[in-house]
């Protein structure tokens, strides 16, 4: 049950909440209906269009019926309202006359135009990458009515990449889920352990997944959270269960995020020797913390930061390290890779996740750095919290699991956000679990993780 | 990169025109200025250098071969030092010097062994017989035996690929023969001058034809449904891709190092894409720093070399080594394109990526950071080690690394390899 989880976007969509999904049909019918927007229509497309229109009419009728009762709590909410204002702005005039109408009917009226936009962004993706998901901004009005405003906000921030790295997203999600829990009241005749996950939590997860494919740490955390809910007896009092869950989330954030970060930075800083020349790629929180920590510990070393010009996070890190008094060499792109690798004594890579086969899932370009460093026989160490380890997915090339950069996706160009680094380009991984020698291969840590019960469960 | 390719850089014709209109010293100076300002770069350097050296030969005062060699060498050294990042300049200087040596020795032989050269003439026509009887006879008359051998190599290697040079080598003994025996020294120098000028003309033809000749091998190298990755395609690579597009349905991944400038509204590789698309070849622009992510979809990487070193390493656009390395990591073919005139009889320096570009385009100091606090390393050239290159595709056809030494020996005289005398200062 726990493994079913909502990690895989497909699985999450396939298991929608049991109650009537007023707006969920929209995204599901959309892909089929999109060709209908093209200027030339084949009979099949006409049929699909007719079908979609019918579905829209039906949904509209349903919504109007339900509008007064069920919709009331979400619509007037402060955050929901704010989000909607933003969405109206982004829709740029074309629907402005409609937005003046009563808000509910306008939703269905707006739907086609929203999908026209969506079709355009996906249709320019080259065919050989068309399977790769891409984050998309979903106007808050199109979200499922059960999505909690806090989750709505998190979803928007994820889609806009304000919340970007895996741990930031995980933490925001968990905090939003706490809000969901706090606002939750078990309906009469139901129990939290049976009702909360399918009817309340799952719609939140679906929405987040739609905004941006879920990162592995979120999948892991949700699995643990669901297992915890299931562990409650059917007649555990609601207050007790809620307390237990809130506590668990707090503990989880403390141990798996904050403490892990501290331990990893401390351990990794120990591996830096005086006189070392560290090479790193882009900006990663753990690498930055490690280097600052090593500096505080009195280590004397220099750092080469190779940046990704599509992200420029490396520049921020270079500046922050430089302010701390560390000599920094900054390369704006991978053009300097060869020279920087030659200068370096070891390489620290911060990564997004680690697959079950030990491959790294890192910002695009991480693999290029690892390959160059390994070829030059430099020590390559990856830093990663154990919550980012995926125990089920295996990835050999970068196209199995990846995301398209929505910012760089146009008819003119195309960019993937991540790449996959095979384990043989690595010397070791430093997590919060081991002593910090950096000599443990990812596989060893995975084995440990497999054996170990998730501490949050106990 | 290579902003100078378009921008304010003068076109080749304009450049040549302006150089022609000036006095020799003035045109050398203005060319050196252009080099220093990076307004002539890459392939244009080769052509422009040949033009300048042609003028040196035509306009400068010299009364014997050594003076001519000195003149070419001194101008050559100045050019090389003006643009150490363009080793192709040195290649052309060496080629011209080698050419002068060849012509001079032929001239001398023509003068001294008048009768023999006439008797040799019919023998030269069928090459198989020419090799044997020609050698033992003239050796005593040719002072440096080494250069005579190499000169023979040169003429032979040229004759295989360049019909013009066949005509020329056949032609030169004839001129010697037709010249009256009583010719004065100046006449011989004049004929040497015209021979050398013809030879430089040929080098210029070779440079201008190299891209087309390389492109003629495109359909062999590129197969239907290939996914070809081209990193910052040079003129040579563009022509190659377009030629392949005429024959093959394949897909091109175009890569540039930096994000396209959205403010200028400039569409990257627009002209190239238009041409490729018109043949029905799909183009995908990868706006990406790293390339490992895409490499599982790619089966060939095409790289335009600025220079091929004698060890087989390539001087390339900054970042091209990332493409080559990613291809190598996944066992994809790496095809290096470059005319033989780009073959450089030197080893790469250790500090090959030493040249740095402007840092202010990348780093903003507006947040109060001290300008010298960050060491910004914006490299503009890159080096691809020989073990990453699978095929060297030249105007003479595809080559392997092991054959490079032969090609070098065919095109350069050992005594000219270190002509700039300070190879260490080159980088």
TrEMBL record, chain A:
Entry GO CC: cytosol
Gene Ontology molecular function terms on file: translation initiation factor activity
Localization of this protein: Cytoplasm, Cytosol
Chain segments carrying region Disordered: 1-117
Domain of life: Eukaryota
Composition bias, Basic and acidic residues: 49-65
Record's compositionally biased regions (Low complexity): 1-47, 88-100
Keywords annotated in UniProt: Cytoplasm, Initiation factor, Protein biosynthesis
InterPro entries: IF-2B-related, IF_2B-like_C, NagB/RpiA_transferase-like
Record's subunit section: Component of the translation initiation factor 2B (eIF2B) complex which is a heterodecamer of two sets of five different subunits: alpha, beta, gamma, delta and epsilon. Subunits alpha, beta and delta comprise a regulatory subcomplex and subunits epsilon and gamma comprise a catalytic subcomplex. Within the complex, the hexameric regulatory complex resides at the center, with the two heterodimeric catalytic subcomplexes bound on opposite sides.
Family classification: Belongs to the eIF-2B alpha/beta/delta subunits family.
Descriptive protein name: Translation initiation factor eIF2B subunit delta
Organism listed in the record: Schizothecium vesticola
TrEMBL record, chain B:
Subcellular location: Cytoplasm, Cytosol
Top-level taxon: Eukaryota
Family matches, as InterPro entries: eIF2B_beta_subunit (IPR051855), IF-2B-related (IPR000649), IF_2B-like_C (IPR042529), NagB/RpiA_transferase-like (IPR037171)
Keyword set, alphabetical order: Cytoplasm, Initiation factor, Protein biosynthesis
Main location as per UniProt: cytoplasm
Subunit-structure text: Component of the translation initiation factor 2B (eIF2B) complex which is a heterodecamer of two sets of five different subunits: alpha, beta, gamma, delta and epsilon. Subunits alpha, beta and delta comprise a regulatory subcomplex and subunits epsilon and gamma comprise a catalytic subcomplex. Within the complex, the hexameric regulatory complex resides at the center, with the two heterodimeric catalytic subcomplexes bound on opposite sides.
PANTHER family attached to this UniProt entry: TRANSLATION INITIATION FACTOR EIF-2B SUBUNIT BETA
Identification of the protein by name: Translation initiation factor eIF2B subunit beta
Organism: Schizothecium vesticola
Lineage: Eukaryota, Fungi, Dikarya, Ascomycota, Pezizomycotina
């Amino acid at each position: 049950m726990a493994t079913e989880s909502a990690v895989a976007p497909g699985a999450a969509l396939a298991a929608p909440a049991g109650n009537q999904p007023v707006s969920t049909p929209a995204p599901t019918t959309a892909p089929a209906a999109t060709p209908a927007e093209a200027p030339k229509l084949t009979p099949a497309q006409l049929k699909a269009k007719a079908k979609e229109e019918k579905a829209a009419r039906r949904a509209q009728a349903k919504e109007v019926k339900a509008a007064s009762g069920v919709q009331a709590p979400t619509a007037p909410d402060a955050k929901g309202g704010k989000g909607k204002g933003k969405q109206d702005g982004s829709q740029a005039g074309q629907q402005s006359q409609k937005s003046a109408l009563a808000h509910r009917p306008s939703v269905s009226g707006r739907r086609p135009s929203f999908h026209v936009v969506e079709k355009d962004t996906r249709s320019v993706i080259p065919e050989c990458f068309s399977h790769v998901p891409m984050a998309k901004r979903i106007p808050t009005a199109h979200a499922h009515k059960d999505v909690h405003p806090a989750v709505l906000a998190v979803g928007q921030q994820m889609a806009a990449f304000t919340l970007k790295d895996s741990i930031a997203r995980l933490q925001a999600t968990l905090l939003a889920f706490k809000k969901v829990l706090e606002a939750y009241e078990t309906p009469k005749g139901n129990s939290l352990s049976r009702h909360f996950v399918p009817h309340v939590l799952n719609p939140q997860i679906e929405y987040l997944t739609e905004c941006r494919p879920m990162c592995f740490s979120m999948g892991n955390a949700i699995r643990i959270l669901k297992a915890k809910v299931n562990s409650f007896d059917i007649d555990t009092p609601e207050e007790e269960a809620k307390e237990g869950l809130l506590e668990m989330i707090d503990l989880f954030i403390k141990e798996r995020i904050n403490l892990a970060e501290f331990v990893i930075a401390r351990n990794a800083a120990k591996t830096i020797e005086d006189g070392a020349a560290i090479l790193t790629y882009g900006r990663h929180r753990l690498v930055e913390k490690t280097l600052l920590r090593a500096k505080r510990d009195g280590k004397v070393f220099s750092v080469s930061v190779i940046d990704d010009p599509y992200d420029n996070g490396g520049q921020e890190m270079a500046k922050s390290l430089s302010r701390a008094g560390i000599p920094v060499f900054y390369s704006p792109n991978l053009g300097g890779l060869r020279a920087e690798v030659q200068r370096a004594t070891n390489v620290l890579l911060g990564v997004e996740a680690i697959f079950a086969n030990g491959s790294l899932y890192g910002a695009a370009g991480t693999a290029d750095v690892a390959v160059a460093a390994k070829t030059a026989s430099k020590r390559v160490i990856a830093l990663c919290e154990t919550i980012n380890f995926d125990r089920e997915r295996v990835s050999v090339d970068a196209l199995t699991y990846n995301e398209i950069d929505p910012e760089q996706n146009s008819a003119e160009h195309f960019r993937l956000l991540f790449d996959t680094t095979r384990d043989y380009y690595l010397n070791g991984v430093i997590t919060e679990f081991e002593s910090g020698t950096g000599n443990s291969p990812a596989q060893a840590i995975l084995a440990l993780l497999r054996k170990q019960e998730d501490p949050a469960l106990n | 990169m290579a902003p100078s390719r378009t921008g304010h850089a003068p076109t080749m014709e304009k450049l040549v025109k302006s150089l022609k209109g000036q006095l020799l010293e003035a045109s050398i100076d203005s060319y050196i200025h252009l080099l220093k300002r990076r307004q002539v770069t890459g392939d244009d350097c080769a052509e422009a250098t040949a033009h300048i050296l042609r003028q040196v030969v035509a306009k400068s005062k010299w009364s014997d071969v050594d003076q001519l060699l000195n003149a070419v060498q001194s101008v050559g050294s100045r050019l090389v030092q003006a643009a150490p990042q363009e080793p192709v300049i040195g290649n052309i200087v060496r080629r011209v010097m080698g050419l002068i040596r060849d012509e001079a020795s032929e001239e001398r032989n023509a003068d001294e062994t008048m009768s023999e050269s006439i008797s040799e003439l019919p023998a030269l026509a069928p090459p198989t017989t020419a090799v044997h009887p020609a050698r033992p006879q003239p050796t005593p008359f040719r002072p440096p035996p080494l250069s005579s051998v190499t000169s023979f190599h040169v003429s032979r290697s040229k004759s295989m690929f360049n019909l013009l040079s066949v005509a020329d080598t056949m032609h030169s003994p004839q001129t010697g023969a037709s010249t009256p025996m009583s010719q004065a020294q100046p006449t011989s120098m004049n004929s040497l001058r015209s021979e050398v000028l013809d030879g430089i003309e040929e080098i210029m033809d070779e440079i201008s034809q190299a891209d087309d000749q390389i492109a003629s091998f495109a359909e062999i190298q590129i197969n239907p449904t290939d996914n070809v990755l081209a990193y910052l395609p040079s003129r040579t690579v563009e022509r190659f891709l377009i030629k392949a597009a005429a024959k093959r349905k394949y897909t091109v991944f175009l890569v540039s190092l930096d994000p396209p400038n959205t403010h200028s509204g400039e569409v990257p590789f627009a002209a190239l894409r238009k041409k490729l698309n018109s043949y029905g070849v799909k183009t995908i622009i990868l706006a990406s720093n790293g390339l490992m992510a895409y490499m599982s979809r790619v089966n060939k990487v095409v790289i335009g070399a600025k220079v091929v070193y004698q060890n087989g390493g390539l001087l390339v656009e900054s970042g091209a080594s990332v493409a080559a390395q990613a291809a190598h990591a996944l066992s994809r073919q790496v095809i290096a394109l470059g005319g033989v005139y780009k073959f450089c009889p030197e080893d790469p320096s250790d500090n090959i990526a030493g040249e740095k570009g402007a840092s202010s385009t990348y780093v903003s100091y507006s947040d109060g950071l001290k300008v010298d606090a960050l060491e910004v390393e914006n490299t503009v050239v890159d080096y691809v080690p020989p073990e990453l290159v699978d095929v060297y595709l030249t105007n003479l056809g595809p080559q392997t690394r092991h054959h490079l030494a032969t090609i070098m020996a065919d095109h350069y005289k050992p005594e000219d390899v270190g002509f700039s005398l300070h190879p260490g200062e080159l980088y």
